[in-house]
Protein backbone atom coordinates (compact mmCIF):
# COMPACT_ATOMS: atom_id res chain seq x y z
CA UNK A 1 0.00 0.00 0.00
CA UNK A 2 1.08 3.58 -0.65
CA UNK A 3 0.28 7.05 0.64
CA UNK A 4 1.24 10.43 -0.77
CA UNK A 5 2.21 13.00 1.85
CA UNK A 6 2.79 16.72 1.48
CA UNK A 7 4.90 18.58 4.03
CA UNK A 8 7.74 16.08 4.30
CA UNK A 9 10.17 18.92 5.05
CA UNK A 10 8.05 19.98 8.01
CA UNK A 11 7.40 18.81 11.56
CA UNK A 12 4.47 16.40 11.41
CA UNK A 13 4.65 14.61 8.05
CA UNK A 14 8.01 12.81 8.55
CA UNK A 15 6.77 11.29 11.82
CA UNK A 16 3.49 10.28 10.15
CA UNK A 17 5.47 8.66 7.31
CA UNK A 18 7.40 6.57 9.85
CA UNK A 19 4.14 5.46 11.44
CA UNK A 20 2.67 4.52 8.08
CA UNK A 21 5.80 2.54 7.26
CA UNK A 22 5.42 0.52 10.47
CA UNK A 23 1.95 -0.44 9.27
CA UNK A 24 3.15 -1.51 5.84
CA UNK A 25 2.21 1.67 3.99
CA UNK A 26 4.92 3.28 1.88
CA UNK A 27 5.03 7.03 2.26
CA UNK A 28 5.74 8.96 -0.94
CA UNK A 29 6.64 12.63 -0.64
CA UNK A 30 5.09 15.31 -2.83
CA UNK A 31 8.29 16.99 -4.03
CA UNK A 32 7.38 20.55 -5.02
CA UNK A 33 10.55 20.85 -7.10
CA UNK A 34 9.35 17.99 -9.26
CA UNK A 35 5.56 18.21 -9.14
CA UNK A 36 3.62 21.44 -9.59
CA UNK A 37 1.32 22.82 -6.93
CA UNK A 38 -0.54 25.00 -9.43
CA UNK A 39 -0.82 22.97 -12.65
CA UNK A 40 -3.80 20.67 -12.25
CA UNK A 41 -2.78 18.33 -15.07
CA UNK A 42 0.64 17.76 -13.49
CA UNK A 43 -1.03 17.08 -10.16
CA UNK A 44 -3.49 14.66 -11.71
CA UNK A 45 -0.73 12.86 -13.61
CA UNK A 46 1.35 12.39 -10.47
CA UNK A 47 -1.57 11.03 -8.48
CA UNK A 48 -2.58 8.68 -11.31
CA UNK A 49 1.00 7.46 -11.70
CA UNK A 50 1.50 6.73 -8.00
CA UNK A 51 -2.04 5.39 -7.51
CA UNK A 52 -1.95 5.89 -3.74
CA UNK A 53 -4.27 4.17 -1.32
CA UNK A 54 -4.28 7.32 0.83
CA UNK A 55 -3.44 11.01 0.52
CA UNK A 56 -2.37 13.16 3.48
CA UNK A 57 -2.13 16.90 2.90
CA UNK A 58 0.01 18.06 5.83
CA UNK A 59 2.15 20.75 4.17
CA UNK A 60 1.53 24.45 3.83
CA UNK A 61 0.56 25.92 0.48
CA UNK A 62 -2.07 27.87 -1.37
CA UNK A 63 -5.73 27.29 -0.53
CA UNK A 64 -6.29 26.50 -4.21
CA UNK A 65 -3.71 23.71 -4.02
CA UNK A 66 -5.52 22.13 -1.08
CA UNK A 67 -8.84 22.47 -2.88
CA UNK A 68 -7.52 20.88 -6.07
CA UNK A 69 -5.88 17.98 -4.24
CA UNK A 70 -9.09 17.29 -2.34
CA UNK A 71 -11.17 17.36 -5.51
CA UNK A 72 -8.78 15.13 -7.49
CA UNK A 73 -8.69 12.59 -4.66
CA UNK A 74 -12.47 12.70 -4.40
CA UNK A 75 -12.82 12.01 -8.12
CA UNK A 76 -10.37 9.09 -7.84
CA UNK A 77 -12.01 7.81 -4.62
CA UNK A 78 -8.72 8.13 -2.71
CA UNK A 79 -9.18 8.75 1.05
CA UNK A 80 -8.01 12.32 1.70
CA UNK A 81 -6.87 13.70 5.07
CA UNK A 82 -5.99 17.32 5.76
CA UNK A 83 -4.30 18.51 8.96
CA UNK A 84 -5.76 21.74 10.27
CA UNK A 85 -5.09 23.45 13.59
CA UNK A 86 -6.55 24.71 16.85
CA UNK A 87 -5.43 28.13 15.59
CA UNK A 88 -8.63 28.40 13.55
CA UNK A 89 -10.15 29.52 16.87
CA UNK A 90 -9.35 32.94 18.29
CA UNK A 91 -8.27 33.45 21.89
CA UNK A 92 -11.82 34.64 22.57
CA UNK A 93 -13.01 31.03 22.26
CA UNK A 94 -12.70 29.27 25.62
CA UNK A 95 -12.34 25.52 25.93
CA UNK A 96 -13.53 22.91 25.93
CA UNK A 97 -13.73 23.46 22.17
CA UNK A 98 -15.93 20.89 20.43
CA UNK A 99 -15.75 20.01 16.70
CA UNK A 100 -18.92 22.00 16.02
CA UNK A 101 -17.57 25.20 17.60
CA UNK A 102 -17.54 27.97 14.99
CA UNK A 103 -13.99 28.86 13.84
CA UNK A 104 -13.43 32.61 14.21
CA UNK A 105 -9.69 33.35 13.95
CA UNK A 106 -8.83 36.41 11.87
CA UNK A 107 -5.02 36.33 12.07
CA UNK A 108 -3.24 35.30 8.86
CA UNK A 109 -2.48 31.71 9.84
CA UNK A 110 -5.82 30.95 11.45
CA UNK A 111 -7.76 32.52 8.60
CA UNK A 112 -5.67 30.59 6.06
CA UNK A 113 -6.46 27.27 7.73
CA UNK A 114 -10.14 28.21 7.98
CA UNK A 115 -10.23 28.89 4.25
CA UNK A 116 -8.49 25.58 3.55
CA UNK A 117 -11.06 23.68 5.61
CA UNK A 118 -13.96 25.35 3.82
CA UNK A 119 -12.47 24.81 0.34
CA UNK A 120 -11.68 21.16 1.03
CA UNK A 121 -15.11 20.29 2.36
CA UNK A 122 -16.77 21.98 -0.60
CA UNK A 123 -14.50 20.17 -3.07
CA UNK A 124 -14.62 16.78 -1.39
CA UNK A 125 -17.36 16.02 1.17
CA UNK A 126 -15.65 12.68 1.82
CA UNK A 127 -12.49 14.32 3.15
CA UNK A 128 -11.19 14.07 6.70
CA UNK A 129 -10.10 17.28 8.44
CA UNK A 130 -8.05 16.79 11.59
CA UNK A 131 -7.33 19.77 13.82
CA UNK A 132 -4.06 19.52 15.72
CA UNK A 133 -2.76 21.31 18.78
CA UNK A 134 0.79 22.39 19.59
CA UNK A 135 3.10 19.50 18.77
CA UNK A 136 5.72 18.26 21.24
CA UNK A 137 8.87 16.80 19.69
CA UNK A 138 11.98 15.36 21.31
CA UNK A 139 14.31 18.28 20.64
CA UNK A 140 14.71 21.73 19.16
CA UNK A 141 15.16 22.25 15.45
CA UNK A 142 11.62 22.22 14.12
CA UNK A 143 8.36 23.98 14.79
CA UNK A 144 7.34 22.29 18.03
CA UNK A 145 7.05 23.08 21.74
CA UNK A 146 10.57 21.89 22.58
CA UNK A 147 11.90 24.28 19.95
CA UNK A 148 9.90 27.14 21.48
CA UNK A 149 11.14 26.53 25.02
CA UNK A 150 14.74 26.06 23.89
CA UNK A 151 14.67 29.32 21.94
CA UNK A 152 13.10 31.15 24.88
CA UNK A 153 16.01 30.07 27.07
CA UNK A 154 18.57 31.13 24.47
CA UNK A 155 17.02 34.53 23.88
CA UNK A 156 15.79 35.47 27.37
CA UNK A 157 17.66 33.25 29.78
CA UNK A 158 14.35 32.19 31.29
CA UNK A 159 11.13 30.52 30.14
CA UNK A 160 8.04 32.39 31.23
CA UNK A 161 5.11 29.99 31.29
CA UNK A 162 1.60 30.78 32.45
CA UNK A 163 -0.12 28.59 35.02
CA UNK A 164 -3.43 29.80 33.55
CA UNK A 165 -2.84 28.83 29.91
CA UNK A 166 -4.16 25.39 28.98
CA UNK A 167 -3.03 24.63 25.42
CA UNK A 168 -4.18 21.89 23.11
CA UNK A 169 -1.07 19.81 22.54
CA UNK A 170 0.20 16.29 21.99
CA UNK A 171 3.43 14.44 21.42
CA UNK A 172 4.29 14.02 17.75
CA UNK A 173 4.44 10.23 17.92
CA UNK A 174 0.96 10.12 19.46
CA UNK A 175 -0.39 12.53 16.85
CA UNK A 176 0.96 10.28 14.12
CA UNK A 177 -0.66 7.20 15.67
CA UNK A 178 -3.99 9.00 15.97
CA UNK A 179 -3.82 10.25 12.38
CA UNK A 180 -3.22 6.69 11.19
CA UNK A 181 -6.23 5.51 13.19
CA UNK A 182 -8.46 8.21 11.70
CA UNK A 183 -7.15 7.71 8.18
CA UNK A 184 -7.68 3.95 8.12
CA UNK A 185 -10.62 3.39 10.45
CA UNK A 186 -12.79 6.51 10.51
CA UNK A 187 -15.12 8.08 8.01
CA UNK A 188 -15.35 11.59 6.58
CA UNK A 189 -15.68 14.59 8.86
CA UNK A 190 -13.91 16.94 11.24
CA UNK A 191 -11.78 15.54 14.06
CA UNK A 192 -9.82 17.20 16.85
CA UNK A 193 -6.70 15.82 18.54
CA UNK A 194 -5.59 17.03 21.95
CA UNK A 195 -3.65 15.03 24.52
CA UNK A 196 -3.79 17.67 27.25
CA UNK A 197 -6.74 17.21 29.57
CA UNK A 198 -5.89 19.55 32.43
CA UNK A 199 -2.31 20.83 32.51
CA UNK A 200 -1.08 24.40 32.16
CA UNK A 201 1.81 25.52 30.00
CA UNK A 202 3.83 25.91 33.19
CA UNK A 203 3.08 22.30 34.22
CA UNK A 204 4.13 21.07 30.78
CA UNK A 205 7.35 23.10 30.75
CA UNK A 206 8.34 21.65 34.13
CA UNK A 207 7.50 18.16 32.92
CA UNK A 208 9.58 18.53 29.77
CA UNK A 209 12.50 19.92 31.75
CA UNK A 210 12.49 16.81 33.92
CA UNK A 211 11.95 14.45 30.98
CA UNK A 212 14.94 15.80 29.06
CA UNK A 213 17.03 16.77 32.09
CA UNK A 214 17.61 20.30 30.82
CA UNK A 215 19.00 23.34 32.63
CA UNK A 216 15.94 25.45 31.82
CA UNK A 217 15.01 28.24 34.21
CA UNK A 218 11.22 28.33 34.32
CA UNK A 219 9.25 31.25 35.72
CA UNK A 220 5.58 30.73 36.58
CA UNK A 221 3.41 33.62 35.36
CA UNK A 222 -0.26 34.61 35.64
CA UNK A 223 -0.65 35.67 32.01
CA UNK A 224 -1.93 34.85 29.53
CA UNK A 225 -5.15 33.39 30.88
CA UNK A 226 -6.26 31.14 28.06
CA UNK A 227 -7.97 27.80 27.53
CA UNK A 228 -7.40 26.43 24.03
CA UNK A 229 -8.22 22.80 24.81
CA UNK A 230 -10.11 20.95 22.09
CA UNK A 231 -12.28 17.92 22.82
CA UNK A 232 -13.60 15.18 20.55
CA UNK A 233 -15.26 12.07 21.97
CA UNK A 234 -15.13 10.28 18.61
CA UNK A 235 -11.32 9.85 18.62
CA UNK A 236 -8.63 9.14 21.17
CA UNK A 237 -5.00 10.14 21.53
CA UNK A 238 -2.43 9.20 24.14
CA UNK A 239 -2.43 11.75 26.99
CA UNK A 240 0.71 13.85 27.47
CA UNK A 241 0.72 12.66 31.10
CA UNK A 242 1.86 9.24 29.82
CA UNK A 243 5.15 10.86 28.79
CA UNK A 244 5.57 13.44 31.53
CA UNK A 245 5.77 13.06 35.29
CA UNK A 246 2.88 15.40 35.95
CA UNK A 247 1.01 15.71 39.22
CA UNK A 248 -2.53 14.39 39.00
CA UNK A 249 -5.12 17.15 38.87
From TrEMBL:
Keywords: NADP, Oxidoreductase. Pathway: Carbohydrate biosynthesis; dTDP-L-rhamnose biosynthesis. Residues 1-214 form the RmlD-like substrate binding domain. The keyword NADP applies. The keyword Oxidoreductase applies. Its EC number is 1.1.1.133. SUPFAM superfamilies: NAD(P)-binding Rossmann-fold domains. Pfam families: RmlD_sub_bind. Belongs to the dTDP-4-dehydrorhamnose reductase family. PANTHER family: DTDP-4-DEHYDRORHAMNOSE REDUCTASE (PTHR10491), METHIONINE ADENOSYLTRANSFERASE 2 SUBUNIT BETA (PTHR10491:SF4). Catalyzes the reduction of dTDP-6-deoxy-L-lyxo-4-hexulose to yield dTDP-L-rhamnose. This is dTDP-4-dehydrorhamnose reductase. It comes from Exiguobacterium profundum.
